[in-house]
């Protein structure tokens, strides 16, 4: 009871007025990272479409889709997404000094984990909606891939 009132007053006066601006600042790098995940998925599926349009090879298409499934675990391809979130390091350092925010690396790591999870969900959903083995008409495959990609991105 003796701590509640001073703690509430401290939060109301020293933290609450800054929460909106802090969240806005945090969301910049986070949103940028998630947009990079979206762009990477889009780019990789577009490459699958282009490759299939050139080769019209269903076996190669299956290999490319299988390779797409490994995308969330491909650190080289995912690196640009993760780098966008690393900008939080600089901003959170300022918060650490002003508000005694600790565990900055944990915040960045969790955000990067969520990005990887999002990519895992995207490629899994893509695989579930598009199965090359069920495609009888190869003329419609590229169109189907595009429709599935747009559905996943939605």
What does this structure look like?
The chain is mainly α and 154 residues long. The chain is built from seven helices and no strands. It has one domain. Helix 2 (16-55) packs antiparallel against helix 3. It is elongated, with a radius of gyration of 22 Å. The mean pLDDT is 88. Belongs to the Niban family. This is NIBAN protein.
Quick structural gist:
With 154 residues, this protein is an all-alpha fold. The chain contains seven helices and no strands. The chain has helices at residues 4-14, 16-55, 58-68, 75-85, 88-99, 104-129, 141-153.
**Percent helix range:** over 70%
Q: Please write the string of helix (H) and strand (E) elements.
A: HHHHHHH
Distance between the termini: 49 Å
Which structural category fits the helices and strands? mainly alpha
Number of distinct helices: 7
Whole-number total of structural domains: 1
- Using DSSP, what is the number of strands? 0
Write the layout of secondary structure elements.
Elements: H1 4-14, H2 16-55, H3 58-68, H4 75-85, H5 88-99, H6 104-129, H7 141-153
Which features would summarize this protein structure in a list?
NIBAN protein; 154 residues; mainly alpha; 7 helices; Niban-like
């Amino acid at each position: 009871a003796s701590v509640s009132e001073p703690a509430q007053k401290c939060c109301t006066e020293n933290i609450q007025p800054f929460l909106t601006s802090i969240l806005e600042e945090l969301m910049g790098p986070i949103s940028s990272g998630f947009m990079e995940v979206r762009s990477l998925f889009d780019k990789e599926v577009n490459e699958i479409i282009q490759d299939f349009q050139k080769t019209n090879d269903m076996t190669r298409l299956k290999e490319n889709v299988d390779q797409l499934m490994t995308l969330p675990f491909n650190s080289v391809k995912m690196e640009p997404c993760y780098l966008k979130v690393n900008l939080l390091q600089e901003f959170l350092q300022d918060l650490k000094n002003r508000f005694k925010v600790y565990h900055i690396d944990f915040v960045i790591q969790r955000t990067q984990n969520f990005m990887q999870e999002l990519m895992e969900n995207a490629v899994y959903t893509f695989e579930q909606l598009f199965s090359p083995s069920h495609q009888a008409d190869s003329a419609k495959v590229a169109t189907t891939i595009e429709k599935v990609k747009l559905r996943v991105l939605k």
